[in-house]
Specification:
By secondary structure, this protein is an alpha/beta fold. The chain has helices at residues 26-35, 57-73, 84-97, 106-116, 128-133, 135-143, 157-162, 169-184, 201-208, 217-231, 253-264, and strands at residues 16-20, 41-45, 78-81, 102-103, 121-126, 148-153, 189-192, 213-216, 245-249, 272-273. A 6-stranded parallel β-sheet has the order 4-3-1-2-9-10, with helices on both faces. Strands 6-5-7-8 form a 4-stranded parallel β-sheet, with helices on both faces. The longest helix is centred in the N-terminal third of the chain and has 17 residues, at 57-73. The structure holds D-glutamic acid. D-glutamic acid (DGL) is lined by residues 20-21, 24, 50-53, 83-85, 127, 130, 158, 194-196.
Length: 279
């Protein structure tokens, strides 16, 4: 049931909303810049309450409702959940609660992993909350019964990415520890099931070598969003200029803006600090 308080008319020229607990969703924005170069984007990073991946399902649902509500107040035509943890626990709730299309990262990543794998042995790394939800295992097995899925919760990785320690020796050491059991399970495909993790792709490659295919949940999500918006005739038809990004955060706007420019490889307007309305 859609709530009337949010009823709004959507049209193709409105921006797309993207949210995450912090900087992780920027990997999705980065991929959207390639897949959807003319779309304006409103981004919300809930930096005051990051990480979400160590929180309980109820809290994750509540935070993600507040995030989505904020984006709707900025008149977005669709919401991309740039966060696996939220996609795992709250996507179906958000789809029912809000009157715009909502896209998550799980299904696109699962489809791509199943296209890549040859031995149907797939590793999944995500936050503790994502792994606890078993959402990836359920979705993979629903699409391919004989697939074997090995999930691993990597709770130290999000803070390392937020700290900008992508190339740090400590990060490689921690990755080696997390990934060793997955290698022993002879996976041939590794799904990066947290939007912070594409930022660790080079470090992960160094640790696991070139023989395991990596599936980047940000890239697959951006392609999926384009596909769905196209089907819904919600891609901008009038805009010729490159899309504009406006970012909002709930804390540390300056730090976020600097990180964002680094992650996106382009300057963005300074992020604005906002307070979210409790729901
Ligand atoms: N980047 C997010 C995810 O994909 C959230 C990480 C976190 O806040 O714990 O799960």
């Amino acid at each position: 049931m859609m709530s009337e308080e949010f009823s709004q008319v959507i049209n193709a020229e409105l921006p797309i909303g993207v949210f995450d607990s912090g900087v992780g969703g920027l990997t999705v924005v980065h991929a959207m810049r390639q897949a959807l170069p003319h779309e304006d984007i409103v981004y919300l990073g809930d930096t005051a309450r990051t990480p979400y991946g160590t929180k309980s399902p109820n809290t994750i649902v509540r935070f993600s409702c507040e995030d989505t509500q904020f984006l709707l107040q900025h008149h977005v035509k669709a919401v991309v959940v740039g966060c696996s943890t939220v996609s795992a626990w709250a996507l179906s709730f958000l789809e029912k609660r809000f009157p715009v299309p909502v896209f998550g990262v799980i299904l696109p990543g699962v489809r791509a992993a199943l296209e890549q794998t040859r031995n149907q042995r797939i590793g999944v790394i995500g936050t503790s909350a994502t792994v606890r939800s078993m959402a990836y295992t359920r979705s993979i097995v629903a699409h391919c019964e004989r697939a074997r899925v090995f999930e691993c919760g990597c709770r130290l990785l999000v803070p390392l990415v937020e700290e900008g320690w992508m190339k740090h020796r400590a990060t490689r050491m921690i990755l080696r520890t997390y990934l060793a059991p997955l290698r022993r399970h002879r996976i041939d495909t590794l799904l990066l099931a947290c939007t912070h993790f594409p930022l660790l792709k080079d470090a992960i490659r160094q640790v696991i070598g070139n023989r395991i295919a990596l599936v980047d949940c940000a890239e697959t999500c951006a392609r999926f969003a384009r596909e769905r918006l196209e089907q819904m005739e919600l891609l901008s038809r009038q805009r010729r200029r490159p899309g504009v990004i406006q970012a909002f955060v709930t804390d540390e706007a300056e730090r976020f803006t600097k990180l964002a420019q680094r992650f996106l490889g382009e300057p963005i307007r300074t992020a604005l600090e906002v307070e979210l309305t409790p729901m």
